[in-house]
Design brief:
21 helices; Rossmann fold; 25 strands; 610 residues; binds 6-O-phosphono-alpha-D-glucopyranose; alpha/beta; Glutamine Phosphoribosylpyrophosphate, subunit 1, domain 1; eight-stranded antiparallel β-sheet
Length: 610
């Protein structure tokens, strides 16, 4: 998983080369941040290549970066797949003659085979990456007489796997060649400047006119031209130009120390946005297929899987429907069970997670209808699904998902409520449900106001610990899982979630004096937690309770060392908002430990490798 950016500008464009690169690379850092690199076509007709391991901020501090001058440039942020993070393995990669520079996101599956072909002709490789072979293949075809763009296309035709490529060839130095297969790639059309990038956010400061490329398309941009072809035929993309709503302001930190805090604290706004976005979309086709569904599968990865779990419980509990949540990467194992008449909902913030994309492709092949629930409406998953529900929660930059979990849960519950209305389910008060969802943003605001201080205090305790449990019942389990995931991801504390009733079947063996156990008192079957909290307390656990402030359960007051008092709210609202203190606890624990919550080690925001 990596991010790529390239631009070609004319002399009239007032923008500074280094500014455009730094802006783009910073916005792409969420896609990978173990190394950074750029290649700029210099005035003397050669490349200036700067690359190194480390963050964008570190690499762009190099004095030669500031003085970069040129009209055509490509850049890359890396999340290592082939070859460790090192200067050699950082992109861009070049051919032997150093006239072709390549940046790549994805995995070239047949790179060893291709490498052997060019090695046999005496090419010398400088890196361990799968990417470098592309530069040598282009060089190879040029030696055989092909013009640069033809050589590029011939090289691309040999690749298997996933790729978004941006390539500059000094023999045609005004253009950036590009190709897309699976990995996302968008073109930005500006005034006297055009871009290619993995993500719109990298260039939205300069233009909001975009064309989302499709699998199999290749082409080039110059400062004045965009050329795209598919299967050897030119494609007129003018009808595909869209104006995106993202503004640069909304993807800055807005005064918060981290993107993660900004995104946690803007959840009230995101929930309100998503609710109104849902109301403006006509989802009657989705409701119809869900009504007729033999079985509903909900697939997702990471945080999106946890939202899927909550959604599946809601489909069962509120509507009595056969619904099952599955981890995207496991879906193929059971896909034989998926049949015509089933509906598979893919939940994905980015809409680009490869495991979820492949699960949905498999589902379609097996005759199921697919519904994408995404935050990025221009994504591959959105494009390939039969139906799309767009959350419009705004860009999420921090690697650890926060506002997209709450807005995913809101969206799934909204579907449940609308389905109850659509099918005339008599035992569900859908009007009250929708009303509850509509006010969820107000409750989220109250949670943030009332709970932040106690979460900071709890974080001070947790920061000293090696391990923690998160326990809940039924709906509380996915919320516990999400809380545990956050603590693991950004505070590097081992955390596990369990259905509370299971805690006595193994997990309790680890509990000793001071062991932190977070109980999710959701106000739904809370009495079932009573004995579990007693069992934990008897072994010396440090009990943290998340519970409605007015709850009367004796065990909360009696056994808890710390209580996060949640505002009173209907169940559907609690399902959305109970995760917020868990996000805050993880965030503050990370900060207290001196870590960077926005950039957890080994992780990436959007995982485009299997
Ligand atoms: C990565 C991110 C998680 C995210 C998951 C699924 O693992 O680090 O925060 O939940 O991918 O991403 P998606 O974009 O499909 O929701």
């Amino acid at each position: 998983m990596c991010g790529i950016i390239g631009f070609a500008k004319s002399g009239n464009a007032p923008l500074r080369c280094s500014d455009v690169l730094v802006e783009g690379l910073r916005k792409l850092e969420y896609r990978g941040y173990d190394s950074v690199g750029v290649a700029v076509v210099s005035k003397n007709g050669g490349f200036v290549i700067i690359k190194d391991v480390g963050s964008v901020d570190r690499v762009v501090k190099a004095p030669e970066f500031e003085v970069l001058d040129g009209s055509v440039a490509i850049g890359h942020t890396r999340w290592a797949t082939h070859g460790k993070p090192s200067k050699e393995n950082a992109h861009p990669h070049t051919d032997c003659s150093k006239r072709v520079a390549v940046v790549h996101n994805g995995i070239i599956e047949n790179y060893l085979e291709l490498k052997n072909v060019v090695l046999g002709e005496g090419h010398v490789f400088m890196s361990e990456t799968d990417t470098e072979v592309v530069a040598h293949l282009i060089e190879h075809f040029k030696k055989l007489g092909a013009k640069p763009f033809e050589a590029f296309k011939k090289a691309v035709a040999m690749l298997r796997g996933s790729y978004a490529l941006a390539v500059v060839d000094l023999d045609e130095p005004d253009r950036i060649f590009f190709a897309r297969s699976v990995s996302p790639l968008v073109i930005g059309l500006g005034n006297n400047i055009n871009f290619v990038s993995s993500d719109i956010t990298a260039f939205v400061k300069y233009t909001n006119r975009v064309v989302v490329l499709q699998d199999g398309e290749v082409g080039y941009v110059s400062s004045s031209e965009v050329y795209v072809e598919f299967n050897g035929r030119p494609v007129d993309v003018s009808s595909r130009i869209r104006l995106v709503e993202l503004d640069a302001q909304s993807i800055e930190k807005g005064g918060f120390p981290h993107y993660m805090t900004k995104e946690i604290f803007e959840q009230p706004y995101a929930l309100a946005q998503t609710f109104s976005a849902l109301q403006t979309q006509n989802i009657s086709d989705v409701l119809r297929v869900l009504e007729e569904a033999r079985k509903i599968y909900i697939v997702g990865a990471g945080t999106s899987y946890h939202a899927s779990l909550l959604g599946a419980i809601a489909f069962k509990r509120f509507l009595g429907l056969d619904a099952e949540a599955l981890i995207s990467s496991e879906f193929r194992v059971i896909s034989r069970a998926v049949k015509w008449g089933d509906v598979v909902i893919g939940v994905s913030q980015s809409g680009e997670t490869i495991d979820t994309l492949l699960a949905l492709r498999e589902a379609r092949e097996r005759g199921a209808k697919t519904v994408a629930l995404v935050n990025n409406q221009f994504s591959t998953i959105a494009r390939e699904s039969d139906y799309v529900i767009s959350m419009r929660a705004g860009p999420e930059i921090a690697v650890a998902a926060t506002k997209t979990f709450t807005t995913q849960v809101l969206s799934l519950l909204y579907i449940v409520a609308r389905l109850a209305e659509f099918t005339g389910a008599i035992d569900v008060d859908y009007k009250a449900l929708i009303q509850g969802l509509k006010m969820s943003h107000e409750v989220a605001q109250r949670v943030l106001e009332a709970c932040t201080e106690v979460c900071k205090a709890i974080a001070t305790r947790l920061a000293e610990k090696q391990s923690a449990y998160y326990l809940g019942r039924v709906f509380g389990v996915p919320i516990a899982m999400e809380g545990a995931l956050k603590l693991k991801e950004i505070a590097y504390i081992h955390a596990e979630a369990y259905p509370a009733g299971e805690s006595k079947h193994g997990p309790i063996a680890l509990v000793e004096e001071g062991f932190p156990v977070v109980f999710i008192y959701l106000g739904f079957l809370d009495e079932m937690l009573e004995s579990n909290v007693e069992e934990m307390k008897a072994r010396g656990a440090y009990v943290i309770a998340v519970a409605q402030g007015d709850t009367v359960l004796g065990s909360i007051a009696k056994y808890s060392n710390a209580v996060v008092k949640m505002p009173k709210a209907p169940l559907e609202v609690r399902l959305i908002t109970y995760v917020i203190p868990l996000q805050l606890i993880a965030y503050y624990t990370s900060v207290i430990k001196g870590l960077d919550p926005d950039k957890p080690r080994n992780l990436a925001k959007t995982v485009t490798v299997i």
